[in-house]
Every structure is written in structure tokens, then in C-alpha cells.
# Entry
Amino acid sequence: MVGGVSVRDNMTERQKAKGKRQKAGARAAVRSSLNYQPSALNYYLGLDLGGTSVKAVAVTKTGEKLRQRSVPFVDRDMEWAKKIRTLVKAWQRELGEPAGIGLSAPGLAAKDARSIAVMPGRLLGLERLDWTDYLGITQAIPVLNDAHAALLGEVWRGVARSRRNVMLFTLGTGVGGAAMVDGHLLRGAIGRAGHLGHVTVDWNGPRDDFNTPGSLEHFMGNKYIRERTHGRFPTTHDLVAAAVKGDAEAKEVWDRSVRALGCSIGSLINVLDSDAVIIGGGIARAGEALFVPLERYIRHYEWQAGGQQAQLLRAELGDYAGAYGSAANALGFNPALKG
# Structure
């Protein structure tokens, strides 16, 4: 007996305390193993380099999202490349080594798919940057054009799942696009395939940055909005808002823009035999003010053989479509092998 407590009681208390510590250690070990679960799931990392930010997703092979992040950057001194490297290293520490990494960016992807071959005017240093070497990854990192990746993402995990004949139009500063035929993502001889904004709507119109006269981009791209409205509207959203409120001049300009888009889509449906057309990008947020008249114009120009009509769809993955597409590209997703 020591201080009113028996030696046996004291030993029992110590044993109980030891048991509690062992149980706590076991629970901590379980929690620790759960922290590394994504690595066991063989995750894939998709990276999409934009004009002002990098979008990234970590997903399982079936597309289940594990992580998602947007990292802003200033386009100078290859800050975008450094931030991508920092992000990749951080997720490697948190999740373990990915089963694969894919990347998309503006410009024409190189034939070997290890870099962007052509991207003039911005993102200095992007051209010919070998991402596999730069990030120090053993497994090759496949590189896609950003619009190509966005379409692949929408077909893999977005609004166009299971489709094999589909086009994507991204309406924003310019008009980007991509096309898939029989499950094959069209890339072309040097990667130009899918630049749907550079089809001619008015052959007497001014040439755009890609030497196309009167292009769809001139009619719909936000970069030309001041020119189209004689300086009256600074953005397409301002134009649409005025048109919705009944401004006659705004309605005329907006209707002309939507008709140009509908004519282009209808013509390309006739060429590529698409069964669906996806519309995305910032201007798509105009909602019914865009989609209602657009559907009408598409039907006016589309060759509806046997009553067949291509479905008009709203992009589902938003700003992360390219990141999902990059991940899909890394894991070897190929719609052409389905059915």
C-alpha cells in the first residue's frame, strides 16, 4: 500500500493507460493509411494552362475527383511553368506518384505530343518546352491543344459522355473549337484541326489574326466587340444585356452574331456529320439569350437527313474541362475503341 493506493491497483492503472495509448496509435495508423489512399487508387493528374491561370485535377481512372485547384499567374518570366512544377510536387507529396500526367495549353501541339510547337504572342517560353523533362517525370507527359483537351474532357466525364461524333465551340475572347469524328479527336497535319472560329462567314470581311476573311471569331469573339459595335459596348455581356432590355441596335448586332454562329455550326454539322454540338466559354453564360435563337438558326442551316437533328448541348465541366481532358489523355482514354 502506497499513499492509500495498492501496488496492484497502480499497476492496473498503468496497464489501462498503456492500452489506451496502443489503441490511439492504431487509430492514428489507420488515419495515416487513409491519407495515402489516393496513391493506391492510381490517380491521374490533369493540367490545363490558360492565359491567366492553371487548372488542375487529380482523378481516379474512372474520373472520380480527388483534388481540384486553380492557380493564378502573371504571364512573365515563365511564372506559369514554375507554378505548375510547384503544384505537381505538392500533390506528389500529398498523394504519392501519379499513374500518369497530362497537360494542355494554347497553341499547336507538337507531333511527338511532348510540347506545344507553335504559340506566338504570349506565354513566352512555352514553344518547344518539353514538359516531361521540365517536370522531371519518368513517364512521358502527353500534351494537347487546350480546346482539344476540353472536348475530350466533355466526352469522358461531361455532357457528351458516350458520344463519338461531336463538336465543341468555346465562346470567349475568341472562338475556339474542336471536333471528334467516329471517336477520333481531329488534329490534322500540324495540329490546326478544330479551329472552328476561323471559318469564313463573310468573304468580304476583314482578315483575322489567322488570315481568315470575315471569320466566325470576328462575328462572335469578345476581342472584336468594340469593332462590331462601333465602340459602343466594351464586352459581349454588355451587348447581350442591352439587347435583352430591348435596345434595337444591340438586338441587331447580337442577332447578327448568333446567326453567324448558327450558320457556321449548321454548315459544319453537314460536313462532319456530328450528332451533338457543345457550347462553352464565357459568352455561353448568356443562357437563353444565346441558346434559343442559336437553336433556331442551326435548324435553318442544318441538313436534317431523315429528320436527324444534331443536339445542342451546354458544356458541363466549365473551366476544368481541359484539365479533365488532359487526365483522360494521360490514361489513354480512346472513344474510337467503344462500339
